[in-house]
Amino acid sequence: MLSFKLATRNLKKGFKSFAPFLMACITMFVMIFVTASIALSPSIDKLRGGAALSEVMSFALVVLAIFSVLILIYSYRFLQLQRSREFGLYDILGFGKTRIAGVAFLELLLSYLITVVVGSICGIAFSKFLYLIFVNMIGGNYFNLEINPSSILLVAALYLIFFIILMFIGMWIIWRSSSLDLLREESKGEKEPKANIFLAGLAVILLAIGYYIALSVDNPISALTNFFIAVLLVIFGTYFFYVSFTVWYLKRKKKRASYYKPHNFITTSSMLYRMKANAVGLGNITILLSMTIVTVVVSLGVFIGTENVVQTQYPREAQIFSVDTKETPDQLRQTTQKMATDHGIKISHLSSIYMASSLSAQRKASSNDQFITSNDVGSMIDKNNYTVTLTTRDSLEAIGNKDLPALDDQEILLTGSSASKDGSLATGLKTVHWYGKDYQVKDILKDVKNFPEDVSLTNSMMIIFANNQALEKALDNYNNVINKDQGYSQSPMTLTLFDLPAADKKAMNKAFKQTFGADNNLSLSYRSEALQDQRAQIGGFVFVGFVLGMSFILGAALIIYYKQLSEGAQDKRSFKILQEVGLSKDEVQKTIKSQVRMIFFLPLVITILHYAGAYLMIEKIVMLFGITNRSLIFMIGLATIALLAAIYYLIYKATSRVYYHIVER
Q: 161 burial class (0-12, 13-18, 19+ CB within 10 angstroms)?
């Protein structure tokens, strides 16, 4: 009974000590609750792409659970440090470690109950708010998020496990420490990191290798496979940088003659002292900020770039896809026009394209003016592999590409991208040896308008032939070499493109069924519907990126807050010592403020360097989703960094008030 009274009294009277811990608990509880409530809600099944969202949110739940337990351990360790003197006094007064551990257990139990109750209330409101954002993001029309009671039980059970871990950590600290250790624990701080030249060198090596992997990546598939290797190297390199390299650098400055100048002496010595308690924390903040930038850039890049991808695949609102049909492109275009006219549907920009797409061609090593195909099937991660589209000169003219040079059956036009520095095909290419037949390159087109393009993760190339017969001959040669042993062959297809008002879609669907019946070789699709499907498919991924990015920045804010609290307690003593050795109050304040700014803004600088090193890899990962607009990815990165820097500065200013309040007391 006495232990329970002490626990409740400690929570009430020592609320300032418990407030940061409870804030961390409730914050992370709410973020986990959001993911669990949306993943398990029956409302998800009523949305397009809901099943995919549920799966991705389940993955996010695992990530947030690991991240949350680390934040809770960090914050509870800080709470134990602040209250170690109190526990030491309890032990000296004869309370006994068993009862002290009992009090700590009851405090955790009360904290757990507060977290579950307050976190559930806030979580329900916040999850409904974020759900509305998601529904608007994918263009859904069901806005009521039903909270499944099992989500509350799941998060409560998960937090019960977390608090049991915290209980064992607290008991271990109490049992292994003597009364004198507990009394001194708060003031002694952490041991100064050793200036280990080996670890300092290892930090540089790990960061250099990580940056090299990121900067040397040349393919989206290899970017994805190498991403986690580079991330692990940079994470370890970052921690070693703060723990050893910064200390090694500061101790080297102490050996210089300039160290004994008053300003350098105070700044260097104080910075070295500060690193004893800040190294790991600064590493944590840097990693969290880096994770925030990566998740936000990838998420926004995929979401914003989706419309560009669909626009590329659908240059017109509607298209009729035809394979193995006996009708020529002109005949299919005329049939489509007659169908629309007979049913009173007004269509515009009607055209037909004859093509064969998604052919995989491996380029042999040859001179720069030759493109020679290999008889082997290429690999997606091979820089010599190309995704090739075949079409005709008449098809390009039909969709608005004028002034094309005339061609005979032995001549072709080319356009596309390659691994060259400017991203275009080499202008000196003169001949293409396409699976047994040589073609002369009449010209390389810089741009083709209104052509529906497939998303390609490799180099891409379009070959434009003189007529349909020349295209079919080239496709037969390809099938005879590549597909003869695989039991299938690529077929040419016709795409009929046109625009129509949104109100006429239902009438067009009805007319299409009446005209073509159940012909499986023909299909009708719309750009607006494709965009909705695409957003529904990637909406879950983007939403999870948003939730994780928010969680990471909140985690960084909590760590910064704890740093300001610990810095305030240490600098209060520093003020007194520096003034006793003869420095004025203004000089002391100026020195400590500059050091605090340096300590807290160093992670932001390192984070920006990390992002710059990883930019090419991030760009390639975004390209996996078909986003090839590099300027868009670059601008999103700049905007994200600017926004993060602004948020970080606001967090710093807000938490600095706590710091200066402690120091000025």
A: exposed
